[in-house]
Amino acid sequence: MSASVMPLLVHAEEAKRSIPMSPIVYGIIAFCGFLLALAVLWSFRNTAQKVPKRHRANDSEHHG
Q1: What is the pTM (predicted TM-score) of this model?
Q2: What's the mean pLDDT in 29-52?
């Protein structure tokens, strides 16, 4: 390797950043987020059946 490239490679290795938490903690946070989304989704189950259907008396007149 050239002598001019070597300092760039050494500097690139020093530029690594470490993550502030353990990777397991990121997984736990993501899992809790998915559980929260599941709870919101679960709270809306069977809501379509609770909405009354609207029947218009004049439906046959509007179709021509």
Answers
A1: 0.52
A2: 92
